[in-house]
Specification:
Helix content is about 45%, strand content about 10%. By secondary structure, the protein is an alpha/beta fold. This is AAA family ATPase.
Length: about 210
């Protein structure tokens, strides 16, 4: 089996992920506004593709092709941004593992289909900040992203599948749903700020004990 080539990592690569309507994209944009040119955002590949007219389908065979396309676009977007801005913090709006939660045949089959493993993809990122879907609190997730199609129940189920995958990362941080979206985003931003500060003060490393599941 041919393995994808692993690129040189950015000084700090953080993935923001979670179920639909969790607030990750809002958090990424606010953090970029706060620290400016010290950070570069890797946009969500699925949103880029679907908003550009990429076809959607519920058929298993088509879903497999869609998720493989998203995986490769996501991976290459990260590598391009890392190469273009090697000294900047890389904030990824979703990561290469997310597609496994949508894959009809399960996670193992997904990673085999794209020629990699869960461990290899987890190793691409220094830390994971997981924003729990607002659907966990029975709050509508319709606003914000016009490409979002999940019902509340589907969003909660997807959130669980994503969390089971990403929580295997040694630096996994959970931002739980809160009644106040403002407080939730503030909590998420504090996590990002803490990771960046820790990384710099520890000589470009993160403490293994600093993880939440």
């Amino acid at each position: 089996m041919t393995q994808p080539q692993t690129s040189a990592k950015a000084p700090l690569r953080i993935v923001l992920t979670g179920g639909p309507g969790g607030g990750k994209t809002t958090a990424a944009d606010l953090f970029r506004r706060e620290i400016g040119e010290r950070v570069v955002i890797v946009p969500e590949a699925a949103t880029l593709l679907f908003s550009g007219g990429f076809p959607r389908s519920d058929h298993d065979l088509a879903t497999r092709s869609i998720q493989k396309a998203i995986f490769h676009v996501q991976r290459n977007l990260e590598d391009i941004q890392s190469a273009e801005f090697p000294e900047r913090i890389l904030l990824c709006d979703r990561g290469t593992i997310d597609g496994a939660a949508y894959w009809p045949g399960g996670a193992d089959d997904f990673f085999a289909a794209v020629g990699t493993t869960l461990a290899q993809e987890l190793a691409r990122y220094d830390a994971v900040i997981f924003f729990e879907t607002a659907a966990a609190g029975d709050i509508s997730i319709e606003g914000g992203n016009p490409t979002r199609t999940e019902s509340l129940a589907e969003a909660v189920e997807l959130d669980g599948r994503l969390r089971r995958l990403w929580s295997q990362h040694p630096h996994f941080h959970l931002v739980q749903h809160a009644a106040s979206f403002f407080k939730k985003i503030t909590f998420g931003l504090a996590h990002i700020e803490s990771l960046v500060g820790q990384y710099r003060s520890n000589g470009n490393t993160l403490d293994m004990k600093d993880s939440e599941r």
